[in-house]
Specification:
Blueprint lengths: L8 E4 L8 E6 L5 E5 L12 H4 L15 E2 L2 E2 L2 H19 L4 E5 L5 H15 L4 E3 L6 H11 L8 H6 L2 E5 L3 H4 L1 H13 L4 E5 L12 E3 L6 H14 L11 E2 L1 H9 L10 H13 L3 E5 L1 H4 L4 H15 L8 E4 L6 H6 L16 H11 L12 H9 L5 E5 L3 H4 L3 H10 L2 E6 L12 E4 L8 E4 L4 E5 L12 H11 L11 H17 L14 H6 L3 E2 L24 E2 L18 E6 L15 H4 L6 E4 L1 H7 L6 E6 L2 E9 L7 E5 L32 E7 L4 E7 L9 E7 L2 E8 L6 H9 L5 E7 L4 E8 L2 E9 L7 H6 L23 E3 L4 E2 H9 L6 H8 L9 H17 L1
Parallel strand pairs: 6-7, 6-14, 8-9, 8-12, 9-10, 11-20, 12-13, 14-15, 15-16, 21-25, 22-24
Antiparallel strand pairs: 1-2, 2-3, 4-5, 4-16, 17-18, 18-19, 21-26, 22-25, 23-24, 23-26, 27-29, 27-32, 28-29, 30-31, 31-32, 33-34
This protein binds ligand MGD (2 copies), iron/sulfur cluster and molybdenum atom (MO).
Keywords: 4Fe-4S, Iron, Iron-sulfur, Metal-binding, Molybdenum, Nitrate assimilation, Oxidoreductase
Protein name: Nitrate reductase
Enzyme class: oxidoreductase
Length: about 900
């Protein structure tokens, strides 16, 4: 181990399922500095832009620091008595299925374990589901069908060892950036390595691809069926391995009926992909939400697994399917049985032997016999009043569930809603009767499991703010108040971990895959010192590779290939809703932005909600660049900034999922998404809504910066944090009579000195407010989208008003342009200048000249893009 510096604490990143090790150093002032842990097997020292900015997200200004009941601060005792009483009453009056928990893959394993134990063992209902239903459920269902259990056989090293890496529905460059960097490095070391990206959209990940297959949304099964046929025809079937596999003939027969044309791909491209796959033994298929979030998600997973099983390319170095998990503890949630149809330690809720074993182990009074409500059904039952008491922990369903307006209204109409969060400023928290302050990432202690089954410790770095308590502690306290003191008598997460490890020994008696019984008996210091370790960790300590030996976890020990056929997405485009809406993530924001949006540098990459539209579609609809688009679907409406780009094909549009009523009320894209689900996994089709587009006829556009929060209420607004204040994009239909009065209200500055320039004929106005000669707020408006250097204006906050109202820097100070490299703080213009000067012609040279892309590297695909565009421009001149 490389030593750690004095004062540094080893922990794990708060965000994605890569699960990077972090060395954090508290600065003694409630802050921390971070660097990548060089010894952690997930990242070996690397961090992405979000990881680098962890220290900038810890301010306490928006934290929830005391319990609240109906909006008023309350004592913990009163709040928790109320929760226990209301749940007890609902159960007494209506039975255990009248209550529900909706939890999260961002809980630590220990939190998750207690939530699951309380609901399934003691309340006696399986109505606990998690946001993993929106995330990993199709993979879980596909793994179980094929392997008899939910095992991810691959590891991160396999990606590096492979000769062909196929990325299906994964924007690895932005969503698992450190894995992407490992892949990029492996390809740089071995240029003969091939990478194929299968995604309807040309993402940043495609920059590394030798082949990008922009297939029709939802058509992955057809492509992998074509591949299975090609595997057979090309002689790549592993006859010996097929002794361990059932269902080859049926799967192949079904695959043979598939019409590859539904993929919309050129036959030559399909062939090129199949040829590459067939002739390359070391193949890793990485897949993510483009696969899972689909009404045929489980079939997509099995179509992929079929190909690996048929070739025996599974469980061996450099080979295998690898589902990358999204949330930091999505995998841990699967281990503790967080889903409504699962039981702890990969045991089955519907298997009486498993159920009895868990009941005996927990000494539990009641166990449900059947699976509980899956997320979409769960909120339907909230809407119709069947669920009388609901506890939402560590997730924001009023934003992230499909048909989000309906879900929001359902929560608002529920008799009793408890929300545990780190902040009250979420769309869901605003609907709670009881709001419980949870400790956050920097304050919590426990374990998380990443995409390749590596368990890592997350360690507390800072004291809990105010009265905030740990999620496991809040849950256990409610368990005690409901009358189950002995079962919830935990004093420290290590005790919960110990119990989980002991339960896994029970599971091991059933010869299940999940086994951490080798970690039993860790005392507190052993737990505190636990180094990253991949399960299984059996009592005899062996760590094996799954499936290479042909042993699976089905009744007969053989894997299953499934006959599957492609189905189009549930919603069909039609003349009323002619566009297919794809949704997903951007590089520097995390989900509903409650944490990442606190770091100014993470807001600079893409600062407002947007819609990617193909140039031809935009032209046909009269949507000009940077104007606004009204997007409607059968379930809702959004207004988003038009980003006109051929990264999407005609007829398809893409919008990020991150914005909320707190940050951009018309940017809640899940309002547009229908709640159609996969029949097996219950996972919603988040990536294939149908929508109509129209230009949003704005009478004015505005851009504002302010040292204080803004009271924006125009038809369109989106705000984000900048250093020293806020910035907002705005637009409205009616032009106000008096811009100064409007600005004073917006900024809540009734008296402050104001300088303004306006031109009624062009509709422009520029207003600057200053105190003591220093800029405190400014508003620029125009009839067309406001053109000015936003970062420059934001940087003027608190500065002397020397170049008033120019909107761009003077010649002496070049404008760095929009932030491209969040880690090193390098703007687009700085990079362009380096390229134009002739000093930098490659990504590496841009790094050498400007430092851009030299830390986490997440922006390197975009730098490559700028270089390419520049070369095209130069050639055209
Ligand atoms: N920056 C950032 N990183 C994150 C997160 C975040 O919020 N921000 N969230 C984390 C979480 S919880 C998750 S689950 C992961 C998600 O990680 P990813 O799954 O990589 O991310 P998404 O952007 O949701 O979707 C991936 C891609 O699926 C494509 N797609 C859409 N439809 C189809 C289809 O029918 N077939 C195929 N093959 N592809 C399709 C989309 O165009 C998109 O590029 O990211 C994790 N990492
Ligand atoms: N259209 C569309 N919708 C999607 C997706 C998509 O691709 N497209 N992706 C789906 C996927 S894969 C996912 S994972 C979900 C994510 O969606 P959500 O889970 O709803 O999003 P988050 O913003 O991560 O919500 C986490 C909440 O927990 C709070 N929190 C943070 N730390 C703690 C803690 O330690 N304890 C407690 N109690 N609270 C804490 C945060 O402040 C935040 O409010 O979105 C899903 N929705
Ligand atoms: S890739 Fe980035 S967000 Fe994901 S765990 Fe690593 S540092 Fe955190
Ligand atoms: Mo996710």
């Amino acid at each position: 181990m490389t030593g750690i510096a004095p004062g540094e604490i080893r922990t794990t990143c708060a965000y994605c399922g890569v699960g990077c090790g972090v060395l954090a150093k508290p600065d003694g002032q409630c802050g921390i500095t971070v660097r990548g842990d060089p010894d952690h097997p997930a990242n070996y020292g690397r961090l992405c832009s979000k990881g680098v900015a962890l220290g900038e997200t810890l301010s306490l200004d928006d934290r929830l620091v005391a319990p609240r009941v109906n909006g008023a601060e309350a004592a913990w005792d009163d709040a928790l008595d109320l929760v226990a009483n209301r749940f007890t009453r609902a159960i007494a009056e209506h039975g255990p299925d009248a209550v529900a928990f909706y939890v999260s893959g961002q809980l630590l394993t220990e939190d998750y374990y207690v939530a699951n134990k309380l609901m399934k063992g003691f309340i006696g209902s399986a109505n606990i589901d998690t946001n993993s239903r929106l995330c990993m459920a199709s993979t879980v269902a596909g793994h179980k069908r094929a392997f008899g259990t939910d095992t991810v056989p691959g590891t991160y090293e396999d990606i590096e060892l492979a000769d062909l890496v196929v990325l299906v529905g994964s924007n690895l460059a932005w969503c698992h950036p450190v894995l992407y960097q490992r892949l990029a490095q492996a390809k740089a070391n071995r240029p003969e390595m091939r990478i194929v990206v299968i995604d309807p959209r040309r993402t940043a990940t495609c920059d590394l691809a030798d082949l990008h297959l922009a297939l029709e949304p939802g058509s992955d099964v057809a492509l992998f069926n074509r591949l299975l046929t090609a595997i057979h025809e090309g002689g790549a079937v592993d006859i010996d391995y097929l002794h361990h596999v059932d269902g080859f003939d049926a799967a192949l027969a079904k695959a043979g009926c598939e019409d590859g044309r539904v993929t919309g791909l050129r036959e030559t491209d399909i062939r090129a992909f199949c040829d590459l796959w067939v002739r390359t033994e070391k193949v890793v298929t990485v897949f993510s939400q483009g696969v899972n979030q689909s009404t045929s998600g489980t079939d997509k997973v099995n179509a992929i697994l079929n190909c690996h099983l048929a070739t025996g390319r599974i469980g061996r170095p450099g080979m295998g399917p690898l589902s990358v998990t999204g949330q930091p503890n999505a995998m841990g949630g699967r281990e503790v049985g967080g889903l409504a149809n699962a039981l702890a330690c990969h045991m089955e809720l519907t298997d009486p032997a498993h159920r009895n074993a868990v009941q005996a182990f927990w000494n539990a009074p009641a166990m449900p016999q059947q699976a509980g409500l899956k997320a979409v059904d769960l909120f339907d039952r909230v809407a119709d009043g069947t669920i009388k008491a609901l506890w939402i922990i560590c997730t924001n369903p009023a934003v992230s569930m499909p048909e989000a307006d309906r879900v929001r209204d359902a929560i608002a109409g529920c008799e009793f809603v408890v929300v545990s969060d780190v902040t009250d400023r979420t769309d869901t928290a605003q609907l709670a009767h009881v709001l419980l302050p949870a400790t956050g990432w920097a304050e919590k202690d426990g374990t998380v499991t990443n995409s390749d089954r590596t368990i890592s410790r997350q360690r507390a770095l800072l004291p809990a703010p105010g009265q905030a308590r740990h999620d496991w502690d809040i849950l256990a306290d409610v368990g005690r108040r409901m009358g189950w003191g002995a079962a919830f008598d935990y004093a420290h997460p290590s005790e919960i971990f110990e119990e989980h490890a002991a339960l896994s020994a029970v599971a091991a008696d059933f010869a299940l895959d999940f086994d951490i019984s080798g970690l039993r008996g860790l005392d507190r210091s052993g737990y505190d010192a636990l180094a990253p370790i991949r399960w299984p960790i059996t009592a005899s300590g062996t760590v094996e590779r799954f499936f290479a030996d042909g042993h699976f976890y089905t009744a007969d020990g053989r894997a299953r290939m499934l006959p599957v056929t492609a189905r189009p997405p549930a919603a069909r485009t039609n003349p009323r809703y002619p566009f297919r809406l794809n949704t997903g993530r951007i590089r520097d924001q995390w989900h509903t932005m409650t944490r990442t949006a606190k770091a100014p540098r993470l807001n600079q990459h893409l600062g407002e909600p947007f819609l990617e539209v193909h140039p031809d579609d935009a032209a046909a609809l009269g949507i000009a660049p940077a104007t606004l688009v009204a997007v409607t679907s059968p379930s809702g409406r959004c207004v988003l900034r038009a980003s006109i780009t051929d990264r999407v094909v005609r007829g398809q549009v893409f919008a990020p999922m991150h914005w909320t009523a707190q940050t951009a009320p018309t940017g809640r894209v899940d309002a547009l998404v229908a709640s159609a689900v996969d029949p097996l996994s219950g996972q919603p089709e988040s990536k294939a809504a149908v929508v109509a587009l129209a230009s949003f006829e704005a009478g004015w556009f505005g851009f504002a910066v302010s040292a204080n929060a803004l009271n924006a209420d125009s038809a369109y607004w989106a705000r984000s944090k900048v250093t020293g204040g806020w910035r907002a994009e705005m637009a409205g239909t009616q032009i106000p009579d008096d811009w100064e009065a409007e600005a004073r209200r917006l900024f809540d500055l009734p008296e402050t000195a104001c300088q303004s320039i306006s031109d009624a004929s062009s509709g422009t106005a520029r207003l600057a407010f200053s105190e003591g000669g220093l800029l405190v707020a400014a508003l620029f408006v125009s009839r067309v989208p406001v053109a000015l250097s936003r970062d420059h204006l934001a940087a003027q906050l608190g500065q002397p008003l020397d170049v008033p109202l120019a909107g761009r820097p003077g010649a002496a100070r070049p404008d760095p342009g929009p932030m491209l490299c969040a880690c090193m703080g390098v703007g687009r213009n700085t990079i362009l200048a380096a390229i134009a000067s002739g000093e930098a012609a490659t990504v590496a040279e841009v790094g050498a000249c400007t430092t851009a892309g030299t830390n986490c590297g997440s922006c390197r695909p975009e730098i490559a893009d700028i270089l390419d565009n520049y070369k095209v421009l130069a050639a055209a001149e």
